[in-house]
Design a protein that fits this description.
alpha/beta, Rossmann fold, 12 helices, 44% helix, binds S-adenosylmethionine
Length: 288
């Protein structure tokens, strides 16, 4: 049994699930701007079977289910049971009958193929062994099946997270979180930023025709300044810096709040605070 993701899976099913649930109002709406643009390019046809990897709350899986229609099927896999239960609830509420969800580790688990397509929105950056995961996903695809992944580009191209990170790290002692800008060499949100390394990894996993398309858009980081500050203190690299600083982080909260107010205020608009974000749409084909 391959349990190299065990610690990460426990985190996704507990502390990270709680965090994502708390900021769902920002994350699902913000990220869906990237996935809606990706769906336009994927053009999933009626009748297709599509696997959504690291499906989280399942909103992409449900979107795909609507695109492929009743003769097709969208299947969401997530390693965290809490996310899968939440996704099943959403599917029931929306009365979508051709979406199905299951708990599993996409790196090494049985994925229930063959699928015509695989898709992931931010669901593939957290594997301990990414090449093994990519090979497992490829093997679940039909010949000529296409895998589309949305992943973050470099931190400095993502001010929606990076501005708060820079601000917090000026105040707190820096303890590096997992992940780097120059992946894939460690699980984390920025582990797939480097096209050369990622395309080599995908080819190593047996994929062909690997392409990268950049997609930029502003996303909402808070309904108001207080919401954005709470988000920054709890989520992403800035939230991780606060968490890693422990008691020192708690002690310096008033100073952090004052500094974040200054950093984030310029992003205010009448409809909330919005900051630039940037992703890669990575497409790769299982050779026929
Ligand atoms: C950043 S969240 C993205 C969730 C969702 N796709 C979205 O865009 O809102 C990453 C998701 O990947 C899942 N995940 C992480 N490692 C995984 C693994 N080894 N197998 C399956 N799912 C995994 C997490 O539980 C989490 O739901």
């Amino acid at each position: 049994m391959n349990d190299s993701n065990r610690g990460m899976i426990e985190a996704w099913n507990s502390v990270l699930f709680t965090k994502y649930s708390r900021f769902k109002h920002l994350l699902v709406d913000g990220l869906s701007q990237h996935s809606e643009a990706a769906f336009e390019r994927c053009g999933y046809p009626q009748g297709a079977r599509v696997l959504d990897i690291g499906c989280g709350f399942g909103d992409c899986t449900l979107g795909i289910a609507q695109r492929v229609g009743p003769s097709g099927e969208a299947v969401g896999i997530d390693c965290a049971e809490n996310f899968i239960r939440a996704a099943e609830t959403e599917a029931r509420k929306a009365s979508i009958g051709n979406a199905r969800f299951f708990v599993g580790d996409a790196q090494s688990g049985e994925l229930g193929g063959p699928y015509d397509y695989a898709f992931a929105r931010m669901g593939t950056m957290f594997f301990a062994k990414p090449e093994q995961a990519m090979a497992n996903i490829r093997q679940a695809l039909n010949p000529s099946g296409v895998f589309t992944q949305i992943v973050w580009r470099r931190r400095d191209e993502n001010p929606w997270l990076h501005e708060a990170e820079l601000c917090v790290k000026k105040i707190l002692p820096v303890m590096e979180p997992q992940g780097t800008n120059q992946g894939p060499n460690g699980p984390g949100p920025f582990s797939m930023t480097a096209p050369d390394a990622v395309s080599t990894m995908l080819q190593g996993a047996g994929f062909a025709r690997v392409t990268f398309e950049r997609h930029d858009c502003d996303i909402c980081i808070g309904r108001d300044l207080d919401d954005a500050i709470e988000f920054a203190l709890a989520f992403g690299p800035s939230g991780e810096a606060v968490r890693l600083a422990g008691a020192e982080g708690e002690k310096r909260k008033p100073q952090l709040v004052t500094a974040l107010k200054q950093t984030l205020a310029p992003f205010a608009r009448p409809d909330g605070l919005w900051a630039p974000s940037s992703t890669w749409f990575i497409s790769a084909t299982n050779p026929s």
